[in-house]
Recover the amino acids of this structure.
C-alpha cells in the first residue's frame, strides 16, 4: 500500500515537473523549485531585481516571481527580459546568455522615452532586455528642440570639476558636465548645442 501511494506521489511530482518543462518556453521555473508539499509547490525566490515581462503584460521583479504566478496560472510565460513596454518585444532576452537575437540594419526608427532614437524595433527591444529603463515615446525619430546653454559666464575659465552629469552635444559627443560642454563651446565650437541631457 505504501509502495503504491509512493509511486502515485512520484507520478504526480513528475507530471508537474514535465508540465513546467513543456509549458515554459522561455522561463526556467524548474530552477526555483525548492520542494513539494502535498499538491502545492513551494518556490523560494531571491531578492535580486532583474525584471522580466510576463505574457500577461505584468512586470515581475525577477523570473522567480513570474514562476510563482505560473504555478497558479499555467498559461503564463515570460514574454521577454526587461520591463514590459508598449512595443511587443516577445522573445528578446538579455545579451550574454547565448540567445541574443541578431538585429538587421533596416531603418524603422523608434523614439525611446530616454530621448534616444533606436534604428529599429529589434535594437529598441535589445535595450529593454538589457535592463535599460526605457519605453516607447513614439514611432519615428526623436525630435527635440536644441537646448541652448548660456556659456558666457564661463568664458576664460577652463577649470572644471569631475562631476558627472552628462550632456549629449549636437556633435554626437558626450560631455561629462555643463562646464566641459561650455569649454568646448568657448574653444570655438560656437554652433554646438545640447541634443539632450544624458549620454549620446
Amino acid at each position: 500500500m505504501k509502495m503504491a501511494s509512493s509511486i502515485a506521489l512520484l507520478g504526480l511530482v513528475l507530471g508537474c515537473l514535465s508540465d513546467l518543462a513543456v509549458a515554459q518556453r522561455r522561463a526556467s521555473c524548474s530552477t526555483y523549485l525548492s520542494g513539494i508539499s502535498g499538491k502545492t509547490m513551494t518556490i523560494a525566490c531571491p531578492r535580486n531585481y532583474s525584471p522580466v515581462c510576463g505574457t500577461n503584460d505584468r512586470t515581475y521583479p525577477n523570473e522567480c516571481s513570474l514562476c510563482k504566478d505560473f504555478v497558479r496560472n499555467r498559461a503564463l510565460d515570460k514574454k521577454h527580459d526587461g520591463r514590459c513596454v508598449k512595443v511587443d518585444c516577445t522573445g528578446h532576452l538579455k545579451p550574454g546568455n547565448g540567445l541574443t537575437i541578431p538585429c538587421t540594419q533596416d531603418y524603422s526608427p523608434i523614439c525611446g522615452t530616454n530621448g534616444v532614437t533606436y534604428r529599429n524595433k529589434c535594437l529598441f527591444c535589445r535595450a529593454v532586455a538589457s535592463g535599460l529603463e526605457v519605453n516607447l515615446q513614439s514611432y519615428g525619430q526623436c525630435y527635440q528642440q536644441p537646448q541652448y546653454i548660456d556659456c558666457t559666464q564661463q568664458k576664460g575659465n577652463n577649470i572644471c570639476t569631475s562631476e558627472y552629469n552628462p550632456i549629449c552635444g549636437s556633435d554626437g559627443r558626450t560631455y561629462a558636465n555643463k562646464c566641459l560642454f561650455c569649454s568646448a563651446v568657448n574653444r570655438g565650437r560656437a554652433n554646438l548645442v545640447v541634443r539632450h541631457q544624458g549620454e549620446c
Remarks:
- The chain has three domains: 27-84, 98-142, 152-197.
- Helices lie at 2-23, 63-72, 121-129, 178-186.
- Residues 152-197 form a domain with the Wheat Germ Agglutinin (Isolectin 2); domain 1 fold (CATH 3.30.60.30).
